[in-house]
Amino acid sequence: MQCPRLGYYDKVYQGNTGTHVASIYVNRDNSVEFNCSCGYNLFTGKICKHLKDLLKEVDEVYKINVNKGIREFDSSIETIPELLQDKAYNDNQLLSIYARAGKGKTLFVLQEATYFLSQGYNVLIIDTEGSLNKMISAWGDIFEERFGEGKGELFVEIHQKVPSLLKFLGYDGRFIPPKKKGGKFTFSYTKDASSENKLTPIELLVKKNKIDFVILDSLTSALEDVPTTSQNFPARADCTKLILREINRVMNDYNVGAMVTHHTSWNPMDTLSKESDNMIVGGKAVKHYSKSIIYMDMRQHMGKIKDDVKNYRRFWLVRAPNFPDWSRASVARIDDTGFHYVKMGSEEYKKCFNNGELLRLGIK
Q: Residue 27's Cα: distance from chain center in Å?
């Protein structure tokens, strides 16, 4: 079976009725066509067992929904599309962005949200940090002047604790503290009785207000009540898995794009760090539910940031369907109007990396 990111997929089946070839083709306009040599085509109205099997395999990798085309969203800057070599966002692939505190995640989120609004999209931001309203007051008018008046509508939900966030997603959940000092936390959850067989609060909001894009900023902040010690990783991972699973479900069921931000407590690019091998916080759950993962940082020398690069952010491609991990990086410059694209390979770009990093990226 061929599995490019989008395009043509086929598989040969041997059975009692002979040899059959099932194929799926995703067109440039994101419509999906099916065919099978057993006699199924677009006009028969019933998917044969061969296509069902092939669709299951394709969906496991790319989350392609056969009942709709893939919906794509542009970014406010070329930095993300250049990094991914594709549209920045779509409704089939959750994008996760990691950065250390104070590096500009929320500013970037607000810039993207304002750009979406200018394109006529309705946006939901789930704020777990409690700083979004202050950021909107400081930057809202600046971004509106840059991108134009918002044609869409912004909705903000503030959920700073895990129980509140999970309730919004349709669950009763909490971290249970250890009975003994130094013990480990556990995570417990059940389906919210009020949401049983009904739409969850996030579904109601998305459906009623025709939300096009959902942003969670940040997942990590909601978990801060649980110490980040190794014995608590399983509990934090279970909670992370549940939250990301529900975000993915909303994406698939309601045809919306989504982005989630996360904190890191160390720099994964620091190869001398004992924890650098972990790369990202959240483990397998994040890698499973986020098809694209980006790490945002700044160039450092001997642990310090030089003045000539302090307003630049590097976007490292931690994971994406088409590229090796950590094989690409793009750059954005921050000024008093927000993030701006820096052309890959330019002198402005190169100064944001040391010689070893440029060699790794194949940039001369």
A: 24
- Extract the tokens encoding 41: 């085509």
Query: Over the stretch 153-185, which tens digit does the pLDDT of each residue have?
Result: 999 999 999 999 999 999 999 888 888 887 888
Q: Alpha-carbon distance 89 to 224, whole Å?
A: 28
Average the pLDDT over each of 6-15, 66-75, 96-105, 179-188 and give the range with the smallest value: 6-15
67 located within any domain: no
The domain in which residue 191 lies consists of: 72-361
Q: Are residues 338 and 308 in the same domain?
A: yes
Residues 248 and 191 in one domain: yes
Q: Tokens 């900023």 label which residue? A: 217
**Whether the Cβ atoms of residue 111 and residue 338 lie closer than 8 Å to each other:** yes
How many degrees, rounded to 5, is the angle at CA 73 between CA 70 and CA 75?
150
Q: Say if strands 123-127 and 95-99 run parallel, antiparallel, or are unpaired.
A: unpaired
Given a cut of 90, is residue 287 above it in pLDDT? no
With left for phi above 0 and alpha for psi between -120 and 50, is residue 333 left, alpha or beta?
Answer: beta
Q: Are 240 and 286 in contact (CB under 8 A)?
A: yes
Distance CA 72, CA 255 (A): 10
Number of domains in the chain: 2
Q: CA–CA separation, 102 vs 256, rounded Å? A: 28
Amino acid at 357: E
Tell me whether residue 303 is in a domain.
yes
- 131, two tokens: 């700083």
Q: How far apart are CA 164 and CA 157, in angstroms?
A: 10
Q: Please give the span between the terminal C-alpha atoms of the chain, in angstroms, as a whole number.
A: 37
Same domain, 306 and 347: yes
Instruction: Say what the pTM is.
Output: 0.78
Same domain, 34 and 84: no
CB count within 10 Å of CB 65 equals 18
- Helix (H) / strand (E) element for 349: namely helix 347-350
Phi/psi of residue 60, nearest 5 degrees: -60, -35
User: Per residue in 31-81, pLDDT tens?
Assistant: 556 677 776 544 444 567 777 777 666 655 444 444 456 789 999 999 999
Closest CA relative to residue 82, chosen from 354, 340, 358, 356: 340
